[in-house]
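Pasting as-is:
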Amino acid sequence: MNPLNSPLEIGVRALVLLAESHPQPLDLAQLAVLDHAVLHSGDLDGPPSLHPSLPGHTGELGMKRTVLEQALLVLIRAGLASVKPDETGLVYCTTERGPAFVDILEAPYVARLRERAEWAVHHWAPGTDVRAATAELLNGSLPTPRPSEGRRD
């Protein structure tokens, strides 16, 4: 298994995002866009990006959703995350063990990931319409925060 963009790597990023958004659950679309924002935060007027800005990196989004679903299953099986229905569909959240697991990760990459997750969840996402952001990313233009009625647009 290639560890880059594997369910394991994306699962760690998803768990960090879920821990940062706790107790607010996130759906698959939100997690995919937030993961992109964490990796490419410098392109979104945030902290320096975790990954380099390569041509065509917006194409990652389509592939990411499939691997993200696999990653969430890994987290659920490990007891670090859970899934539940709400009025809009399925949403994901951490279990009590999720944030504790994130806290024991000491790699410098994880520290940078946590900083960008805090920025993405609390500063970038509240003003971002997830559907519009996804469309803009797929069309090659990066979203900027804009007022919206709620985080689950």
